[in-house]
Task: structure prediction
Amino acid sequence: MEQDIQQASATRLENIFQQLAKLKANGCLQLSYNSIIFFVYFNEGKLIYATNSLAPFERLERHLRRLSNRNSNLTNKVIKEARQKFRNVLESYTENPSDYRGLMWLTSEQKYLSKDEAITILRRVTREVFESILSLPEPLNYSFVEQSKKLVELCSFDLDSYLKQCQKRLQAWQTFSNHIQSSYQRLYLANSNDSTIRNLTTEQNETICKLLKGLNFRQISALIDQDELIVAKILHSSIINNTVLVRSRKPPFDKLPILPKTQNLFEDITVEDLFNDIDIDSDVENSSARTTKKFNSNSKETIYALEKQWKLACVDDNLNIHHQLEDFLDRKMFTISFIREPMNAFAQLIEFKPELILLDAEMPHLNGYELCGLLRNHYDFKYTPIIMLSGEQGILNMTKSRLAGATDHLIKPFTQSSLLNIVFKYLQ
Result:
């Protein structure tokens, strides 16, 4: 059987799955992409589970935290127990993946999860992994390893119908593709003083806006107990009008494939058409009334999300720049240290310990280039993002910035959009 499957190396992914189903395969299909290995498990040709080598316990814990909104047994301590008990050894994944063993342990041995809850987690984890698998560029690098011992089975999926549902979900994602390229992209609120997400109550607005500090679609989904596609739909209009900013994926999720684009394929299909026929979690209604559901903001991760503030320092003798930063940056998201005297800046920066520094290039007594060089020679600031502010654009100024050790360059006067773009580019 293994030889038969290996001979299909030039075929498409769907054909590989069809062949596995036809042969009633027992084993693990492995697909490689960008240093990531995807593992897809089959019993008698039916899909049992899917995972990958990219932070598998982060994914499992995130879905457990989503379920913790409804299951009070899933405390922080319990959620971490599975990771602590089962070592994340990649070599063991072909036979028995550690995250799957952790899920089974929480269900069968510890009884923290009912069987139905465990199946819900298994379904959500597998679906998340499959959306990445179906986004992989072809030709694929893959192999199949037969197993004499089947994976312990909680449930199984009919492969043909499962693939169709996953493809419909990808079509729904593609309706947002002009503004969203990945469900792992991070989201930021441009200005909390002027933010309204459509179709939400005041309370729901307040809850979701507090989470727009760099969490991705899937993390927000877990915290408010909503399908990630619903999160994208809720935020889409605010993304279009730049109330919500979509930024690049945080490592290691930048290694995953982006959502596929199919030109003109869905031009006559609306978001509503697709949402009426895709596999949204069964506990969420399929009508527009789903957005009126009360968000639960008491998940264990929410504490960090709400309390996180970035420390930003600005060294500039121009008071107008300080006023601009106060207007452009949300003080709920940033703690800002304004320094007007460059000769005193070094000591103040050491004491403040900023996560990002804005330096004016031209200041009396000690200019930004000189100060940048001094900072780079101090161990506290070797890797701190330093953005040089300059009133002139040119190769000479940019070269001087690089030679001084600056991370990037921003031209004055700057807009709120250009400031936020460069700040969020370097703040993780």
